[in-house]
User: Which sequence fits this backbone?
């Protein structure tokens, strides 16, 4: 029984190590502002490499946004030219321009 628990623990640690980029933890103190207006009900999630996942499920205006250090190409970009998200990330905040042109600011912890 003891060897089974050790093996299960090692498998769990290996699973977590392999999937660090996919696991997100909610930041309960995170705040989301769109065009300088606080978004109530928006949740902030952070992963190991400090990528930010924003989720707002209540209607109207439900959205899910992933902001990371890589260039973001939204699937619904309908504007002319190349999309430039203008992502700025620090240890306390993330700011970027969403696909619809609105300015998003995420204040962390």
Assistant:
């Amino acid at each position: 029984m003891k060897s089974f628990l050790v093996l299960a623990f090692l498998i769990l640690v290996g699973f977590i190590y392999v999937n660090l980029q996919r696991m997100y933890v909610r930041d309960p103190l995170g705040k989301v502002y769109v065009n300088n207006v606080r978004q109530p009900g928006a949740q902030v999630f952070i992963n190991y490499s400090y990528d930010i996942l924003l989720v707002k499920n209540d209607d109207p205006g439900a959205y899910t946004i992933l902001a990371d250090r890589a260039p973001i190409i939204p699937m619904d970009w309908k504007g002319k030219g190349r999309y430039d998200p203008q992502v700025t990330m620090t240890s306390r905040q993330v700011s970027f321009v969403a696909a619809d042109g609105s300015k998003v600011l995420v204040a962390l912890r």
In short: The two ends are 42 Å apart (CA to CA). The first helix runs from residue 2 to 18. The mean pLDDT is 79.
